[in-house]
Design brief:
Layout lengths: L1 H19 L17 H17 L9 H5 L11 H20 L5 H14 L9 H28 L4 H14 L11 H13 L15 H10 L7 H16 L3 H4 L1
Length: 253
């Protein structure tokens, strides 16, 4: 007797899980999306309206009751206005089925992505506004990757990646962190004259550094030469100093 009760309970639970939920509202409404005949659509909507009138407890008030409430009561398939409302309901269900996942796998994956992005190990959790911003930017970036891949697979050729890479390298070379163009002595002197005419800094802790002609002259002296020993370096500095002493004041300025 105990085994019979357990088997009966298991049969009822299996039917409830695999049959009842898919044969009742609101799941039966999605069958309307695949109907191509207007007559079949109106027939099914009229049947759903009659079932909802006979058994109000069988209709979920959140979705089905609101959707069937848009239909005129009683529904007349011969009335063009009623048929137009039925077609609008079918279009709404089709749009909703396209943009809403039929399975919960994608929803669970999105929730997992959001939780991993918002997780802070031994730290203060982000505020509500920060969490919204992180989730929104993550969704935008993932959507952009999907669209970019779709466009690339249809319009990109074998040389497209090289062109895009070259474009990025050219556009970012001038603003690369730590990048300093090489300047000649004339360019450095012109920049120093501009700095001399500029307004002084208001903060006394930051003093303007003046460029020294001797340092620039010595830098150009050793430019292009291989590394040398300390003794040879002293000799080169002495030669550079003797050469510097013979230069005119215009060069030293």
């Amino acid at each position: 007797q105990r085994l019979f009760v357990l088997c009966l309970a298991q049969i009822g639970e299996s039917w409830r899980r695999f049959c009842h939920n898919h044969q009742s509202f609101p799941h039966v409404l999605w069958k309307l999306c695949a109907l191509e005949s207007t007559a079949d659509l109106c027939k099914e909507l009229a049947r759903f309206q009659q079932e909802a009138r006979q058994c109000p407890e069988c209709v979920d008030p959140e979705f089905t009751a609101v959707l069937l409430g848009k239909l005129p009561s009683p529904f007349d398939p011969a009335n063009p206005d009623h048929v137009h409302i039925a077609l609008k309901i079918q279009q709404f269900l089709q749009d909703l089925s396209v943009f809403t996942p039929v399975s919960t796998d994608s929803v669970e994956a999105l929730h997992g992505f959001a939780q991993s992005s918002l997780h802070r190990f031994r730290g203060t959790k982000p505020t509500d506004n920060t969490a919204k911003e992180i989730c929104l930017w993550g969704k935008l970036l993932s959507s952009w990757d999907v669209v970019m891949k779709w466009i690339w697979d249809r319009t990109g050729d074998t040389q497209a990646r090289r062109r895009v890479s070259a474009f990025y390298n050219r556009s970012s070379s001038s603003v690369r962190v730590g990048h300093r163009p090489k300047l000649t002595m004339l360019q450095v002197r012109a920049m120093s004259k501009v700095e001399d005419n500029a307004e002084p800094s208001r903060n006394p802790r930051f003093k303007r550094k003046r460029l020294c002609g001797w340092n620039m002259y010595q830098r150009e002296w050793f430019q292009g030469k291989p590394p040398v020993s300390p003794r040879t370096y002293k000799q080169e500095v002495r030669k550079c100093s003797e050469k510097w002493a013979t230069e005119s004041q215009d060069v030293k300025a």
